[in-house]
Amino acid sequence: MLGTSALAYTAMPLPTDSAGTPVADCPWVGERYEDGHRTLVLGESWYGSFPETIATDDGYIRAWLAGALPKGIREVLYPRLSGAVGPSRAEFWHGVAFTNFVIASVGPTRSNRPTEAIYEVAKVRLARVLADLRPARVWVIGKEQSTHSGPVIDEAGIVWAWVRFPLSAPAMTHQELGASWVMTTPGMRCTFFLLGRLIHAYARLDHFIGLQLNWLGEYRGQPVAKLLRKNVAFARRLKCLRQLAIQTWGHSDPKVVDEFKAWFKEVERVQGQRNKYAHGRWGYMRINTDEIEFVELSWESDPAKMKPAVKVALEDFRRLVGEVERLTHGFVSLQKKFESRVRYKKEWEDANPVGFKAWAAYQAMLSN
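User: That's the sequence. What structure does it adopt?
Assistant: Structure tokens below.
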């Protein structure tokens, strides 16, 4: 799978190891890399001395996957990476490309580290690797190297995320590694952005409903102060606003009542969706789709009774967010449409001067 990648670097002098020996440049490219999410996993460097057959990224990973590493060589990092992301070892590695930022051995022991000069050479090579492999995202392993490789990846306009070296102390959990992997996924970043918009839009809607209750309660002579406390459920405020809105605008006309009821029904629908997505668990982006796995919140411990994972399409999620964001404007539009039907009587005006003043100010605002 790697012949073409190796050929792309023939014009570049081969890197040398700490002993000055030239090192072949041959990144690993999984069999399904071209058909999948095109992720390049970027290691930092390596130390020691290996036989020529496993002294390249391609040769080493190929031998490791086949269980053919020479006796005495025990691989620890690669299983940690594939184990944290979820699929099987072979599925993960055949779906990605891999290369070390520094492809030549930096010395005989782990205490040997890349120098600034070595990193500078590695930057030139990385730019060529990115141009050749054209990854959609890069998962950078190691904080130190990310300060050198990150600007090169940025220059190429590629999404990337770094994670500290998994084998350094304190030991990283699979969850930490998995979270870093997720942040390299453009679709996952979009999901988190939409989730933030959903929560923000819902909070604005709740605030808007409180403002409507505040003036309508005063206008209708109904105490609502207790409903405006932050520990009161959203559904209670919504129920009270429904009653006040229908009394104010929908009196004596079933068609108007139906329009307001439709708005409140829509709020109840998105409320359920918001609660589901805000409190549930998001999985991973499905390869070659815009779908993400999602599981609703549940404390069920019996596997047979647990809710199954469902697939959420980004386009459907984006549509839901837009619907929540438009709800506030929808209520204001109904107010303006039926503002002439606001119900008050002369006796109420005389008995509620403060409330009437608030109503008059509101009418003036609508007429502007």
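The longest helix spans residues 186-219.
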